Amino acid sequence: RFSKSVNLPLAGKKVVVTAGPTRERIDPVRYISNFSSGKMGYAMAEAAVKLGASTVLISGPVDLPKPSGVRLLKVESAAEMLEAVLAEYEDASIVIKSAAVADYRPKEAHAQKMKKKEGDSSISLERTTDILKTLGAQKKNQILIGFAAETNDAVAYGQSKLDSKNLDYIIVNDVTDPGGGFGSDTNVVTLLTKTGKTFPFEAMLKSQLAAALLEKIIEEERTTVH
Ligand code: CTP
Ligand code: CA
Predict the structure, then answer these.
(1) 112 Cα–ligand 1 center, Å
(2) How much is the CA Rg of the chain, to the nearest whole Å?
(3) What is the dihedral of CA 131, 15, 217, 139, to 10 degrees?
């Protein structure tokens, strides 16, 4: 499935990477989001470019420069990210879902700033669409790679996400590990494959880790009979 080119094994392949958090609007001045920095996703996109892929980076709001060689599509909400990813899915060879998509959004986004009032207040939330699960359900030949951000029982939770979202690989991230996590330049992860293999990676720079992960996945794809 992959070019024999040692240097550019992803030449001629389209890789779609999502990165960063999403923002779900409450009103014109407030939103719900998370601490994702986008660094791991941007590193994955840069690694894909270096391996020769035609790379599309679909990014939530982050404070990072555009990596050279990628086509950058900026989005804000989970709904916008879903639409952008679906539009790029059909001819993609690999989809890497590094984004920390918000699981909930306010039921209504108020058109005007909400005013404070006496006593308690609450916002009604509803679930966002699970983008990765949607991709898994309509997968043809694409290789689907997910991330799992966990604080406990990371590998077990990662395994269940690999299965339930119909993924080929999942990169499990214990965000409490002192060697990595949100905002850090380094990361410690475990790669799980749908064929039942487990590859732990040592703490390293996110840029190095991204290259090492793609290299391992390409090697697996070359040696695994589907
Ligand atoms: N994901 C997604 N769409 C969502 C939520 C998650 O595509 N609405 C993707 C993420 O990009 C990631 C993977 O699913 O690749 C796992 O995300 P994670 O937040 O770890 O898992 P969830 O399935 O959302 O479960 P939970 O947050 O409850 O652990
Ligand atoms: Ca989640």
Answers:
(1) 30
(2) 18
(3) 40
Cα 61 to chain centroid, rounded: 14
**Where do the domains of the chain lie, and which CATH numbers do they carry?**
14-103+126-223 (3.40.50.10300)
Q: Specify the pLDDT at position 5.
A: 72
Cα–Cα distance for residue pair 43/55, rounded to 1 Å: 12
Instruction: Judge whether 152 counts as a catalytic residue.
Output: no
- The angle, 0 to 180 degrees and rounded to 10, between the axes of the packed helices 206-223 and 39-50 is 50
In this predicted structure, what is the pLDDT of residue 169? 98
| 14 assigned to a ligand binding site | no
Tokens representing 224 are 């695994």
pTM above 0.90, yes or no: yes
Bridge partners of residue 97, in order along the sequence: 18, 146
Q: Is 133 annotated in some ligand binding site?
A: no
Q: Report the half-sphere exposure of 125 (CA within 13 A, side-chain side).
A: 13
User: Ligand 1 site: residues with CB under 6 angstroms?
Assistant: 78, 97, 99, 101, 103, 128, 130-132, 146-149, 161
Residues in the chain: 226
Which residues of the chain have a pLDDT value below 70? Answer: 225-226
Q: Are 85 and 12 in contact (CB under 8 A)?
A: no
pLDDT of residue 220: 96
Looking only at the bridges linking them, the beta strands covering 189-193 and 198-200 are antiparallel
pLDDT on residue 183: 78
Closest to 16 (Cα-Cα) out of 103, 104, 75:
75
Residues in Cβ contact with 81 at an 8 Å cutoff, skipping those fewer than 6 apart: 18, 22, 58, 60, 75, 99, 101, 131
